[in-house]
Amino acid sequence: MNKELKIFGVVAFFTLFLYWGVEPYAHSQMHKHVEGHNFVYDGTADIEEAEAKLAIAKESGVKVEKAEATAKAKKEFWASVAKISKLKGDPVAGEAGFAMCSGCHMDGAMNMGGVTPPSLEHAGSLYDKNYLIALVKNPAMASNVDHKYADTAMHPMGSVSSMFPDDQQIADVVAFLKAKKSGELTTKEAFTDACGRCHAMRYAKTSQLGDTPKFKYKKDELKYQVKILEEQDLVKAYMGKLPPDLSIIIRARGEHFLETFVENPQSQLAGTPMPRTGLSEEGYEKVKEYLTEIGDPSKPHREAIGPWVILFFIIFTGLAFLWKKEKWKGHH
Amino acid sequence: MAHFEKANSLNEWMDQRLAVNTIKRVMQTEYWIPKDINFLWAMGMVLAATFGILLVSGIFLLMYYKPDVNLAFDSVNYTIMSEVGFGWLWRHVHGVAASLVFLIIYIHMFTGIYYGSYKKGRELIWLSGMLLFVTFSAEAFSGYMLPWGQMSYWAGMVITNLFSGGSLEAYALVEWIRGDYVPGDAFLTRFFMLHVLLLPLAIIGLIVLHFGTLRLPHVNNQEGAEIDFEEAAELYKNGNHKDSKVIPFSPVFLSKDIFVMGVYFILFFYLVFYHFEFAMDPVNFDPADGLKTPAHIYPEWYFLWSYEILRPFSKDLGLVAFGIAQVIFLALPFLDRSPNVAPASRRGLFHYWFWLMLIDMLVLTFMGKLPPTDALFANIGLVAALLFFALWIALPIITKLEKKL
Amino acid sequence: MSSRRDFMGYALGGFTAVGGIAALYAMKRSWDPLPSVKAAGFTTIDVSLAQPNVLNVEKWRGKPIFVLKKTADMKADDRDVVVGSDRFHISIGLCTHLGCIPAYLADEMKFKCACHGGEFDSSGHQIFGPPPSPLEVPPFKVDGTKIVLGEAGPEYKKMLDAGLTV
């Protein structure tokens, strides 16, 4: 009996060793661990990245001036965001400011320069305050895609800062969003607002245009397909390639990757055109819940049944052991 | 017409027509197994049970899977995973079982090597077993193609490219295997055929052969001792269970088997419900895209040691090494020149050979997963691959020098 | 050989059988029609734009469905589906003789089946030829100006009870 336990120990040891090498160890070598910043948008991550790039530039001697300028600009930008954040925003005054936003951010909005402006109905509950301030001040910097806009094109929202020349106005409009556009929203609404204008979800039957309706006639169905393709072409041109369908992204990338990626896409895929979304922690939780609903729908069922199946086999093993003991009586 | 009397029971009626009592004696109650064995001897039954699980879960997947490059991915990841009642369960069970079956195969294989269960009359057991390993490998590979994710596509691309034979540049052969220039619909449907029909039939046939080759030599025991099975059987049948060196397959051996299976199923279902990513790699949850190679491609863990033998060498040398590695285990009964049937611990240098081989294959497995661009990993891989061949060359020498026990 | 009952064996066998039944249940559920298939078993028809004496053919569970808005001079029938102030004849468009799809002749306000000459009136009653029974009324529910096929509403249940349809 002791000998068998020893043999089992040896087999278990090598099995666990094998598992360790092939899974946790190998994956740690293939994917360097990325730390998130808990959905705090104060520029720490951005400035760190810029300084890392500066260090590399200094070593190679290439584009040092540009790297220096970028690092400096980021530090100044996030410092100014912090300053605005300290101001007391007046939601009443902010309402007038918001009227300017509604020009583009409205129901049935058209595609503008490659992307359809998202609904701001729940912007207060979805997005982080500092991020919203940063977004109005300089959308490319705020969403950490300024490397895309450096020399040529302007961000579709680039002209917004000229509508809010005074820092107090920015504080006011963000205060308005936080006060008046902070209702409860469903997980699906969170996804649609924050992600849906670029990412389709065929398993949820949504495209960049929203829910795909059911059509009675094939001709109408095909006409709508063409509309989707045209919108996708616009997004593709804006982004460089079509943002992937997120139907099972939760299983394809895992929770940790997605959390750090959504908070700061550059941290996981350097150079990506995906903008930072500025989701607050609660906002992201809602989005994550929706991604899990669509991408891993069997999870609740799995977690409900699992303990019972395992318990069944524990009892089975116990009964089997007792039966074995009986059959082997008198054999040893 | 043979003479038939009226039967007095259902059992007697069946026995008159199908000899069920004889079958029961021959296959169960008087199929003699040595008593001096440990739980590792149950791995064969655990494999049979796992194969059965793969068949049953496969049947339900087969009801909804669509073997078409445009439909396959969603038929698995949408229809089966979210629409079919318990579809997710069959998929998880099938994926975990496909991975665990190889863990048990390797344990089963190394048990056989350790105790010398491939020698002196048992060569065909070993050969049929190794053929089962090869067939299971082909079954696993063909199955992995079916979800048509990124890993399916690129594994298909890389492995079929091997058939170009390096400098032979047999691209026509590669295209013939694929049925197309690149892995596409023709490729998918033929591997579907292999996975669902041809290979399972071959496996079942080989299992029958494997059982058949086991009968005359009998199952081995922990000391490798030769047993007079007739004498031991007589002792047992006379009621002397304690002194007899054998036990009947049913119910005595089977009762321990079932206990071991219970322990196995606890682990198995824990993995199915809570810890399955090793068996369902996230990379395969991206739909196949022939225009985008994933950052990291690697085979399933059970192929890694053999994949790593391919990598450190130049193209042609690597292919030759890879080819040899696939078949060298078949030669084991003939490369082992010692007549001793005994556990490795009693076989002098062979004991070291065994553990070195095991550790070497583990190291090869780890290196096979890691990116080859890292210099340290590449060097370790090269050393491990060379050691593998050194061990096989050393085997006939050390076993020839082995003292007869 | 011991002739004692193998209680432990029976216990193990019985417990295993319980597990087996659970597994069989899961297998049965896998065989069930998929939710998307069952959902497709309900078709909603909007009759607000229907024209009198113009036959609309919809699809429900793979079968053709006749939707005919009755004119003022078409006889009212207990099998009519009443939506607001309009009366509709709604039936499964398969001849009750051998299953062909009858054509609607608007001038004569009747259905005529090409296969064996059977005829039905504008309320679906068989009036000539081999058909043994009236056109079947599918389960329906009135929802404002919409009719949901596949759902048995109170009006449909009344027809069933009165033996007006099967």
The CATH class label of the largest domain in chain C is Mainly Beta
Q: What is the average per-residue confidence, as pLDDT of chain C, rounded to a whole number?
A: 90
- Strand count of chain C: 11
For the biggest β-sheet of chain C, the strand order reads: 2-3-5-4
Helix content of chain C: 10-25%
Order of the strands making up the biggest sheet of chain A: 1-2
Portion in strands of chain C? 25-35%
Low-confidence stretches of chain C: none
Largest interface: A-B, 50 and 53 residues
Query: Quaternary state, please?
Result: heterotrimer
How many separate domains of chain A? 2
Percent in helix of chain A? 55-70%
**What is the gyration radius of chain C calculated from CA atoms?**
25 Å
Counted by DSSP, the helix tally of chain C is: 3
Overview features:
heterotrimer, A: 332 residues, mainly alpha, 2 domains, 17 helices, globular, C: 166 residues, alpha+beta, Rieske Iron-sulfur Protein, 11 strands, 23% helix, 28% strand, elongated
Description of the molecule:
The complex is a heterotrimer of chains A (332), B (405) and C (166). By secondary structure, chain A is an all-alpha fold. In chain A, 64% of the residues lie in helices and 1% in strands. Chain A has two domains: 36-297, no CATH class; 301-332. Chain A is built from 17 helices and two strands. Chain A has a two-stranded antiparallel sheet with strand order 1-2. In chain A, a hairpin with a 2-residue loop joins strand 1 (206-207) and strand 2. The mean pLDDT of chain A is 90. Chain B has 405 residues and is mainly α. Chain B folds into two domains: 24-297, Cytochrome Bc1 Complex, Chain C (Up-down Bundle), CATH 1.20.810; 304-405, no CATH class. Helix content of chain B is 65%, strand content 1%. Chain B is built from 16 helices and two strands. Chain B has helices at residues 10-18, 20-29, 43-64, 72-83, 87-115, 123-145, 150-161, 171-178, 185-215, 229-237, 249-274, 304-310, 315-328, 332-335, 349-369, 375-400; strands at 32-34, 246-248. Chain B has a two-stranded antiparallel sheet. In chain B, helix 3 runs antiparallel to helix 5 and helix 5 packs across helix 11. The termini of chain B are far apart. The mean pLDDT of chain B is 93. Chain C contains three helices and eleven strands; from the N terminus they run ααβββββββββββα. The longest helix of chain C is centred in the first third of the chain and has 25 residues, at 7-31. The radius of gyration of chain C is 25 Å and the shape is elongated. With 166 residues, chain C is α+β, with helices and mostly antiparallel strands. In chain C, the strands form three sheets. Chain C has a four-stranded antiparallel beta sheet, with no helix packed on it. A four-stranded antiparallel beta sheet of chain C has the order 6-7-8-9, with no helix packed on it. A three-stranded antiparallel beta sheet of chain C has the order 1-11-10. Chain C has helices spanning 7-31, 35-39, 154-161, and strands at residues 43-46, 55-60, 63-69, 81-83, 86-92, 103-105, 110-112, 119-121, 126-128, 140-143, 146-149. Chain C folds into two domains: 7-32; 39-161, 3-layer Sandwich (Rieske Iron-sulfur Protein). In chain C, a hairpin with a 4-residue loop joins strand 8 and strand 9. Classes of the chains: A mainly alpha (332), B mainly alpha (405), C alpha+beta (166). Chains in contact: A-B, A-C, B-C.
